[in-house]
Amino acid sequence: MLLQDILIGFAFYLIIEGLVYALAPSFLVAMAKLLPTISEGALRATGLIAVMLGVGLVWLIRG
């Protein structure tokens, strides 16, 4: 069950990533150009917030 959930999560990740590349490639390039201008601390904080939101959503859904 856990392995199946992990694989489904990875599949959804691939679907979302693929949609971004397919539907908004110019937006993705613009965001990649902006990344060097954002401080490491801001990127780290954003990543940690995303992780916490993801864990919270999984906890609520699987609760």
Automatic annotation (TrEMBL):
**Keyword Transmembrane carried by entry:** yes
Keywords, comma-separated and alphabetical:
Membrane, Transmembrane, Transmembrane helix
Supply the InterPro entries for this chain. DUF2065
Top-level taxon in the UniProt lineage: Bacteria
Looking at the UniProt entry, the stretches that span the membrane are 6-30, 42-61
Q: What Pfam families does its record include?
A: DUF2065
Protein name according to UniProt = Uncharacterized protein YjeT (DUF2065 family)
Q: Which organism is it from?
A: Martelella mangrovi
Lineage per the UniProt record = Bacteria, Pseudomonadati, Pseudomonadota, Alphaproteobacteria, Hyphomicrobiales
